[in-house]
Amino acid sequence: MSRSPRSLSGKVAVVTGGARGIGQALARALAREGVVVAIGDLDVGAAAEASAQSLANGSLGLSLDVTDRPAFTAFLDEVEQRLGPLDIVINNAGIMHVGPLDEEDDASITRQLEINLHGVIHGTRQAMRRMKPRHTGHIVNIASLAGRAGGPNLATYCATKHGVIGLSEAVRAELRGTGVEVTVVLPSYAKTDLAAGVPNLRGIKRVTPEEIAASTVDALKVPRFDVWSPRRMGFVIGVGAMTPRRLREAISRAMNSDGLTKTDQRERAAYEARAAASAPAADELIEEEAIPR
């Protein structure tokens, strides 16, 4: 028997990396459901503008560098002080570098690990500490199709997203019976700057941020763990997992996974520059590691 959808009206949510792309679409979709949303983003101007232009109900746009863990915790504290206890935490902030692993520099690898994985670990842990005593809440971690299938020129990104899925599965088991839900979202290539210049997969259309947000909101109303976008990718990956590796890899190549090696780097230049400036706290760590001892 299907469960009745929960009302989200009046709940308080945090969306990291919420000033643009999937994060902004999530914030808008939640606001339409009556959720009070706090957008956290490194670009505080864009976060405030996104909040003012598209949200309501006293929603906020605040500065957030998810690689600065004390500041991340302070951000969550401020949101709770101003809006009330957190009902929903969406760990969305993420970056993606496209290029061969042996040509990727240490700074790019560290930024992706710190934003895509360590930031999600910290956001999840903080959400657990706030939600478990109240026996209610929902943690949503934005992963990727790349978290279930590797692709050339995305090695570090794939590693971080595999990590997000493993983290989410483990935390789901830890939280069983507490009243706190966990959802992991696995989009295919989306129509965002993150996938700029990346060739399309054959037979799989690019999903819009709004489609990803709608599926996520559905999982908040009727809780489920895996959210695939588009939904049929869950079937494709499930069948692939039961297929011999050589055949699975041949199918992947037929879908143009190797097209990643033909990414238009000129088209990605603006995004890559913004991604390289997206983790000030991580950059300090990179500089410390570079100092001769």
General description of the model:
The protein has 293 residues and is of the alpha/beta class. It has one domain (12-287): Rossmann fold (3-Layer(aba) Sandwich), CATH 3.40.50. The chain has helices spanning 21-32, 44-54, 69-83, 106-131, 155-174, 209-221, 232-241, 245-254, 265-276, 280-290, and strands at residues 12-16, 36-41, 60-63, 88-91, 137-142, 180-187, 226-229. Strands 3-2-1-4-5-6-7 form a 7-stranded parallel sheet, with helices on both faces. β5 (137-142), α5 and β6 form a beta-alpha-beta unit.
Brief overview:
By secondary structure, the chain is α/β, with parallel strands linked by helices. It has helices at about 20-30, 45-55, 70-85, 105-130, 155-175, 210-220, 230-240, 245-255, 265-275, 280-290; strands spanning about 10-15, 35-40, 60-65, 90, 135-140, 180-185, 225-230.
Mind sketching the topology for me?
Blueprint lengths: L11 E5 L4 H12 L3 E6 L2 H11 L5 E4 L5 H15 L4 E4 L14 H26 L5 E6 L12 H20 L5 E8 L21 H13 L4 E4 L2 H10 L3 H10 L10 H12 L3 H11 L3
Parallel strand pairs: 1-2, 1-4, 2-3, 4-5, 5-6, 6-7
Helix pairs in contact: 1-6, 3-4, 4-5
Residue share in helices? Answer: 40-55%
Low-confidence stretches: none
The third-level CATH topology is Rossmann fold
Characterize the overall form: globular
If you average the pLDDT, what whole number results?
Answer: 89
Strand order of the largest sheet: 3-2-1-4-5-6-7
Q: In the CATH classification, which architecture applies? A: 3-Layer(aba) Sandwich
Class of secondary structure makeup: alpha/beta
Number of E-state strands: 7
Output the radius of gyration: 19 Å
Spell out the CATH superfamily. Answer: NAD(P)-binding Rossmann-like Domain
Distance between the termini: 63 Å
Helix count equals 10
Note the quaternary state here.
Answer: single chain
H/E series, N to C? EHEHEHEHEHEHEHHHH
State the CATH class. Alpha Beta
Q: Number of folding domains?
A: 1
